[in-house]
Design goal:
552 residues; mainly beta
């Protein structure tokens, strides 16, 4: 039945010269009109393709279609006979000589030799009926691959290039073989009102859907900015914000940006809308190319239709702030900043950094440090995490450290920056080389930074809390000097505990030097680093390496 329907529809749509088309379309159209009554007059239509004990069949009993691929296998058994029925998909109902015996996979034993009729049914699929012969002392396995029950969906759309989505999947062309069931249909085209409806496709039937879209009025909506708070002095691509809005019909628009006093500072143009989503970028500069002052700026988008008869506008705001400063930093030990000095440099909201550091030990037993770090900005709070390991250590297992930190900004503007930080560590094995000693379970710090651009001076007091049978608390001090040109960052940092003053021979001192360079036109940074470690007055180890990071 489905094949007949397809054939008649194809014949009626033939694109040939006029005399031949008339000869073909007339009988084809008559046959198509008879489709609804054919099941009542047709008794049996059979198509069978069999190779050995496998094949594909399609039966049409008065309009009830059966279709499946099947195969039969046999193996001997000690006594009696048995039948095993499998199906794809599974969980299909199995009937044996019209009696329901369960769902696939299904096995029946104790059968007498003879001929049996097996029927396999599952919702959404054509049923399959197979007649098999079961001999004495053998197990017969019937494996059936059911065919999805489908109907023919015919789309008639106006305009012709209307995009049609069926449950989110795009349909191209006019004819579609679709599995039976209920669907959500969406028809859309720019400049027209989107139409949504539910349709039902019935097996072995033709479902025709007529789509007639009406022109949409000219409207603007959904104004948003990619960076609600941004800093034009940041290195590219973090020094701009994208202004986006939606248009329902063709037209043009002008984007006006007003300062906190209501004065116009910039005018941008968006021409020839060709789709719903429009976008323009503002670099934080006025009409003369000068950077604007920090503050909240109003965005007004005014648009008009192609014929200039319809107008609409949308409004929004964007903030220019020095607090949106984006700085690439090492995220070693899950704590952002410098190698051995926590720094108050929280990322602005929606900013993310990923970094990888690797290297080798220059002095001492062979070992290669590897560290992955991540930073996530949420506004005044930054979340960070890190995983460190030492490859080549002469231990039973590779030492690994998993770290995480929460940083709360107290002051994010020059000349004094401050934050509060808590860092937690979970460590497997001893990690005393080359990135430094074992880390404490918890560390509480108060990073401070004094700016004298481009120089910065960092001082971070803190307390390390550890547990090795008994809880231990030790004060720590971290310090650094940093040269920050934003596109290029270089620093020297050091960490020591209170024993440097009370008992220098037992103190632990770790020092590091690092450089991070932004690759022009990309969000990628390349890094170089080196470390030195001392126990009291004794030099212990040195290491060096490089890294790669991305910040967006």
């Amino acid at each position: 039945m489905r094949c007949v329907a397809y054939a008649t529809l194809f014949l009626t749509e033939l694109n040939v010269n006029t005399p031949f088309r008339a000869l073909v379309r007339a009988p084809a159209a008559m046959l198509f009109l008879l489709l609804p009554v054919l099941p009542a007059v047709a008794e049996i239509s059979v198509s069978i393709d069999v190779i050995g004990e496998s094949g594909r069949f399609m039966f049409d009993y008065g309009g009830i279609l059966e279709s499946a691929d099947w195969s039969v296998s046999r193996r001997e058994r000690d006594r009696g006979s048995a039948l095993r029925v499998l199906s794809e998909p599974g969980n299909a109902e199995v009937h044996l000589n019209r009696d329901r015996i369960g769902r696939t996979p299904q096995e029946v034993s104790g059968l007498s030799p003879g001929i049996y009729l097996i029927r396999v049914e599952r919702s959404g699929y054509y049923p399959a009926s197979i007649r098999v012969t079961i001999g004495d002392r053998e197990t017969v396995t019937v494996d059936v691959r059911l065919t999805e029950a489908t109907g023919l969906l015919v789309l008639d759309r106006e305009p012709r290039d209307t995009e049609v989505l069926l449950d989110g999947s795009r349909l191209r062309g006019r004819y579609h073989d679709v599995r039976e069931g209920s669907y959500r249909l969406e028809a859309r085209r720019f400049g027209y009102v989107t139409e949504r409806r539910r349709i039902r496709v019935i097996r072995n039937r033709v479902t025709e859907v007529s789509i007639r879209l009406r022109e949409a009025p000219f409207e603007l909506s959904r104004l948003s900015v990619s960076r609600p708070v941004f800093r034009p002095k940041n290195p590219p691509p973090y020094n701009t914000t994208a202004i986006s809005f939606r248009a329902d019909a063709p037209g043009t628009a002008k984007v006006f940006i007003f300062d906190p006093d209501g004065s116009l500072v910039r005018e941008l143009t968006v021409r020839d809308f060709r789709t719903w989503d429009q976008r323009v970028t503002w670099d934080g500069r006025d009409e003369r190319g000068r950077l604007v002052d920090p503050g909240e700026y109003e965005i007004v988008v005014e648009g008009e239709s192609v014929d200039a008869e319809e107008r609409d506008s949308v409004h929004g705001v964007v903030t220019v702030s020095e607090e949106a400063r984006i700085s690439y930093r090492t995220a070693f030990g899950g704590s952002p900043g410098l190698l051995y000095a926590a720094e108050p440099v929280t990322l602005p909201a929606r900013a993310v950094q990923m970094s990888l550091l690797a290297g080798g030990r220059a002095i001492g037993s062979p070992a290669a440090p590897l560290h992955f770090g991540a930073r996530f900005g949420t506004g005044p709070v930054e979340l960070s995490a890190g995983v460190s390991t030492i490859l080549g250590e002469r231990n039973d297992r590779t030492p690994t450290r998993i770290s995480g930190a929460v940083d709360v900004a107290l002051s994010r503007t020059s000349p004094l920056r401050a934050s509060l930080r808590m860092t937690g560590n979970y460590q497997i094995g001893e990690m005393s080389t080359p990135f430094g000693p074992d880390e404490p379970v918890l560390r509480f710090q108060a990073p401070l930074r004094l700016d004298a651009q481009p120089l910065g001076f960092v001082m971070t007091p803190g307390v390390a809390l550890d547990y090795d049978g008994d809880p231990r608390v030790r004060p720590e001090l971290e310090s650094a000097i940093i040269l920050d040109y934003e596109r290029v960052v270089a620093a020297i940092s050091a960490r020591s505990d209170s024993r440097l003053i009370t008992d220098p021979t037992e103190s632990q001192v770790d020092t590091g030097a690092e450089t991070h360079v932004l690759i022009p036109g990309t969000p990628l940074y390349v890094s170089a680093w080196s470390t030195l470690h001392f126990s009291g007055s004794e030099f212990r180890s040195a290491a060096a390496g490089g890294g790669l990071g991305v910040l967006w």
